């Protein structure tokens, strides 16, 4: 694969010199970069008009999405420039407001990093793109900046394949976009590229105002496991995954039927246990599998706790004021704790009950208490979770498969293969695999891998 160009795409109109995006306390906790990549398998044919000549396509105008293959990069770049009129902070830079000791985004129009590349192979040569593989990571932009400059908040890379298919990858600092708002960002980009304008108006009100703590802050719940940053000196630097805490992820597929069977198995025989979702049942199963793999491969007491962080989208539910177009981190993580012994020996329905109890605690009052608790801390907030946690990220049911640039939906969206140990990622199974999910997890040894899969065997291997 060859990279052909790296440029900075800037808004068509300059932002006011004083424009600043205030960040919420929840944003502060997520100062690191994350990526997602969308694969489009298609043979793009030139759109002709009258005399069968390709319609011109230039830097300022695009008149039809079915442009020639070589114009895909230009189409996305032009759409991105227009998109930045609605997302001006995406072209800004992260800054530390020293007077308030808080992070903010300066809307200084330094630009979104845009990379174009070409892979001299057909997309099919990558094989199953739902399988994590280091070669796929080459299609994801590396954040670059000069020594005297701060790194971009957002980067995009478009990579063309010989077959006419292409990959679109987004890398962004999590302080600016969570998974939901990243999906909407790409959804709007595709809508503009098709000539339809934005489809979901972004809500870019001050996040500090939208999710503000009380004055004075009065936490009403105990939040002992929410950490705070101790050193503010390099807080605006790019956060890279520590090498010693990373590995290549393993993908585990769960078909729609397997997930239905898992949910039925959790419910069966427990008349007082009313219901659970497939999502809750799967989290319980994966948490149990992780506990078994740790207890049986490492010399640790079975009384050791293995907390799990479960993300909850606040938009329109717990916080009705957060719309679907809210740009920022509209998520909180509920922490559920259990010992290794409890997880290994308990039936799944008891683990699900523990998860459900914690989810019920996610009330508007609880969210306000977290905002107040974080406000009471000194200095910027901690951005890395404790490695002893079983951290979890979920991208299921987000509109990535609606990201249509004019040639149909992506065949799959994927995450980088390089992942942190002791973290779990759940994704939709694919555009053609309705209601199936894929889990990605890093396992540190063959023995861990074997024990983990033993716990899941009844469902991973289940099929109609």
Give your account of this protein's structure.
- This protein has 464 residues and is an alpha+beta fold.
- It folds into 2 domains: 2-210, Chloramphenicol acetyltransferase-like domain (Chloramphenicol Acetyltransferase, 2-Layer Sandwich); 245-397 and 413-460, Chloramphenicol acetyltransferase-like domain (Chloramphenicol Acetyltransferase, 2-Layer Sandwich), CATH 3.30.559.10.
- 25% of the residues lie in helices and 21% in strands.
- It contains 11 helices and 19 strands.
- It has helices spanning 25-28, 72-83, 134-137, 179-193, 207-210, 256-267, 278-297, 340-345, 348-360, 364-375, 446-460, and strands at residues 2-9, 20-22, 33-40, 48-49, 53-54, 93-97, 102-106, 112-119, 154-161, 166-173, 246-248, 250-254, 308-313, 331-336, 390-394, 412-414, 418-420, 423-428, 437-441.
- The strands form 5 sheets. It has a 6-stranded mixed sheet with strand order 1-8-9-10-3-16, with helices on one face.
- Strand 9 and strand 10 form a beta hairpin.
Quick structural gist:
This protein is of the alpha+beta class. The protein has helices at residues 25-28, 72-83, 134-137, 179-193, 207-210, 256-267, 278-297, 340-345, 348-360, 364-375, 446-460, and strands spanning 2-9, 20-22, 33-40, 48-49, 53-54, 93-97, 102-106, 112-119, 154-161, 166-173, 246-248, 250-254, 308-313, 331-336, 390-394, 412-414, 418-420, 423-428, 437-441. Helix 2 (72-83) crosses helix 4, helix 7 packs across helix 9 (348-360) and helix 7 packs antiparallel against helix 11 (446-460).
């Amino acid at each position: 694969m060859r990279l052909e160009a790296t440029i900075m795409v800037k808004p068509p109109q300059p932002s006011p010199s004083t424009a600043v995006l205030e960040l919420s306390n929840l944003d502060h906790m997520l100062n690191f970069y994350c990526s997602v990549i969308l694969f489009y398998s298609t043979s793009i044919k030139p759109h002709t008009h009258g005399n069968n000549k390709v319609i011109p396509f230039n830097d300022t105008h695009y008149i039809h999405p079915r442009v020639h293959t070589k114009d895909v990069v230009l189409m996305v770049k032009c759409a991105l420039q227009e998109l930045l009129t609605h997302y001006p902070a995406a072209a800004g830079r992260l800054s530390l407001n020293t007077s308030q000791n808080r992070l903010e985004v300066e809307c200084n129009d330094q630009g979104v990093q845009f990379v174009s590349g070409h892979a001299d192979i057909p997309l099919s040569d990558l094989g199953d793109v739902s399988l994590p593989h280091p070669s796929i990571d080459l299609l994801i932009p590396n954040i670059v900046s000069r020594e005297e400059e701060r790194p971009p908040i957002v980067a995009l890379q478009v990579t063309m394949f010989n077959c006419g298919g292409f990959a679109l990858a987004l890398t962004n600092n999590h302080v600016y976009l969570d998974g939901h708002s990243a999906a909407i960002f790409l959804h709007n980009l595709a809508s503009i590229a098709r000539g339809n304008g934005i489809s979901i108006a972004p809500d870019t009100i001050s996040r500090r105002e939208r999710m503000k703590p009380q004055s004075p802050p009065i936490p009403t719940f105990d939040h002992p496991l929410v950490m705070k940053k101790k050193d503010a000196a390099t807080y605006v630097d790019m956060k890279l995954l520590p090498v010693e805490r990373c590995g290549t992820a393993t993908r585990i597929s769960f078909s729609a039927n397997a997930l239905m069977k898992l949910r039925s198995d959790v419910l069966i025989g427990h008349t007082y246990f009313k219901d659970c979702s497939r999502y809750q049942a799967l989290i319980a199963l994966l948490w149990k599998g992780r506990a078994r793999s740790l207890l049986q491969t490492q010399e640790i007491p079975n009384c050791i706790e293995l907390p799990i962080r479960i993300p909850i989208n606040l938009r329109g539910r717990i916080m009705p004021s957060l719309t679907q177009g809210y740009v920022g981190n509209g998520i909180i993580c509920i922490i559920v704790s259990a010992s290794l012994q409890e997880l290994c020996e308990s039936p799944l329905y008891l683990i699900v009950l523990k998860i459900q109890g914690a989810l019920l605690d996610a009330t508007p009052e609880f969210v306000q208490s977290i905002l107040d608790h974080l406000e009471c801390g000194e200095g910027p907030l901690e951005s890395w979770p404790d490695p002893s946690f079983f951290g979890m990220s979920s991208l299921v049911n987000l509109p990535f498969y609606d990201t249509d640039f004019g040639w149909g939906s992506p065949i799959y969206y994927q995450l980088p293969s390089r992942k942190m140990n002791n973290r779990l990622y759940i994704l939709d199974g694919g555009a053609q695999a309705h209601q199936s999910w894929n889990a990605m997890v890093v396992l540190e040894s063959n023995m861990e891998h074997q024990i983990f899969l033993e716990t899941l065997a009844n469902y991973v291997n289940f099929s109609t």
